[in-house]
Design a protein that fits this description.
Mean pLDDT: 89
Shape: elongated
CATH superfamily of the largest domain: P-loop containing nucleotide triphosphate hydrolases
Number of strands: 14
Strand content: 15-25%
CATH class of the largest domain: Alpha Beta
Number of helices: 11
Distance between the termini: 35 Å
Structural class: alpha/beta
Low-confidence stretches: 195-200
Number of domains: 2
Order of helices and strands: EHEEEHEEEHEEHEHEHEHHEHHEH
Helix content: 25-40%
Length: 370
Amino acid sequence: MARCLIGCGSNLGKRREQLDRALELLRFMPGVTFLAASRYRETRPVGGPAGQLAFLNGACLIETELSPHAVLEMLAAVENTLHRERHDRWGERTIDLDLLLYDDLVLETTELTVPHPRMATRRFVLEPSAEIAAELAYPPAGCTVGELLDNISATHPLIAVVGVPGSGAPEVAAAVADAVMGRVIHAPAPLPLPTRAEAGLPAGGAAMRWRKMLAAWAEPLDRASWDDDPHPVIADYWFDELALTAADDLEPADLAGFEADFTSQADGIVAPQVAIMLVADQAALTERIAFRSRHSHLHTNVFGDLAVRMADVSDCDRAAALVMFQGRLARRLRCLDGRGPRSPKAVITVDASDLGQAIAEATAAVEAML
């Protein structure tokens, strides 16, 4: 038997009646034991088409012998019974049932992702879920549902928009900060790409450059000067990106000294509560690299983090290298290479191939946690 956490919401028609009816149908499903239901909370719609009515949101906890995909089919059957229509993403709906957690399972298929990929930053999901299942484990972060809620309830939260050069991290961070009346922190210098073969650096020059980079990236995140402003801070970098890149750039002897410096600097900085991982495909990155090359004579900051070029590398090969680094960065951020002390509990992945859509999705993710 598996314990499943299910989120439920409605903002069309008789909302309370529809939620009550959905829970009643779940209660009498074969192979299901109904354990608990939260109270309903009215919340404003986040993302999706404009002009929607407010939602009623709640959560319920069941125990079941059904497989994860069978639970998904069951929830779809309940939605269909209550005349759920699917038109616009995040649009109005008579009923919405989401499988949030299935025991401690982590699963990602074309049909189903568990845990739910957006639950870690959605207050309208976490508040009712914590009411009935605060101690339920959230495997990706090695924490509980209650701790997820505490995480997004920090007085002065830090959200890191993370991505390789050309992913649009500076542009997305600035747009999100504007939308939520937050403060934006831009990386003091672009993320250096592997440049060990770059001509012109004296012996030890790479190590010195990395020490300067560490100090520059740490200064805006200094814990000692972090204030209690209730608005979020949106940074367009994650400090741990430096550790990944330096490992490709420095010789083993220099890398050991860098890692000691990195640990020292990292101990004094604020770690992000939430990360938004921007993922762009190779075609989009190649196009953006070419854009920077064509417009290098213009005073534009669009994709300005691509201004640092790799020596003797074509645009296509450079984009391929960025895609490879992007995969490593995503694995580290999602703790697949071991959870670090600065790893955020909540990680949202956003497709950044369309920059406008990425801004909309990232903004919705941050608005949902406030």
